[in-house]
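Summary for the steering committee. One of the milestones for this cycle was to obtain a three-dimensional model of the protein with nicotinamide-adenine-dinucleotide bound, which we needed before selecting residues for the alanine scan. The sequence and ligand used are listed below.
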Amino acid sequence: MAQILDGKEISKQIRDEVKSKIEALGEKPVLAIVLATKNESASTYVRIIQKAAEKVGIKANIIDLSENVGHDELMAAVKNLSEDTKTHGIIIQTPTPKDIDIDEARSLIPLEKDIDGANPLSAGKLFSNLESFAPATASAVIEILKYYQIETSGKHAVVVGRSRIVGKPVAHMLLDLNATVTICHSGTPDLTPYAQNADILVVAAGKANLINDKQVGPNTVVIDVGTNFNDQNELVGDVDFEPVEKAVKAITPVPGGVGPVTTAILLKNTLDAYLGQTQKPT
Ligand code: NAD
């Protein structure tokens, strides 16, 4: 049986720390979340962040725009928040309406308020090893590895997925931690030889059961970022958990792995933004 890398435990530790620091401040940092969709998972995710924020003393201000909001109106809302001295962190929840240029909207988030590393300039800073906020999910993967003291230096890390918010930043951060990194993606004809060769396997593809027990070994550490709903409408990751758990050294569960750590990091980053601090991501 594998070691279970418990994201809830890490999340609690981060949130407790954030809470006590905010209590000492005596003032509430403000996190603004721009929501322009009726998509159920997006709305649920925003409610989870809002609840978690309030528990640690962060005010979550949901800017609930219509799913038919026009480009100019959404840009104006983000610009307003960017100039509002009482707003410390900004997230633009996806999906946004199809006419919205999401990169243009994200570019309006000042880097010091860009607590989910969404502005393309934050990405540029991350890839140049300059201080910035990294995407929270990528930071969560690294946080889990660090918390459980999983060695990255000299190890072979295989990242499945190359998105700008997960795969690419995780790969870069692992590289920075001295891992030898392979990135697999939808154009990789067969994941098996790469996965089998991984010391650390980070899976962020959004495909249930993408990784099975034949693709891993007794020394593999598996970080499952994926979130999917199975036929029973249960939340599952990208890894076929039951058989894989029996075959590997350590694994994150879904739910209870990367997700709660991501939320906690968004809160920590909001506090850091309030304090005027960004950090080196690794
Ligand atoms: P995305 O759709 O932007 O990217 C998916 C990536 O997976 C792509 O780069 C694609 O090339 C790759 N891919 C798809 N099918 C593949 C296959 N068969 N083999 C190899 N690679 C394949 O998704 P994303 O935003 O990067 O998110 C990835 C997953 O992580 C999703 O399930 C998402 O819901 C989840 N997620 C979880 C959290 C969290 O906090 N737990 C946060 C963000 C995203």
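Key point for the committee: The mean pLDDT is 97.
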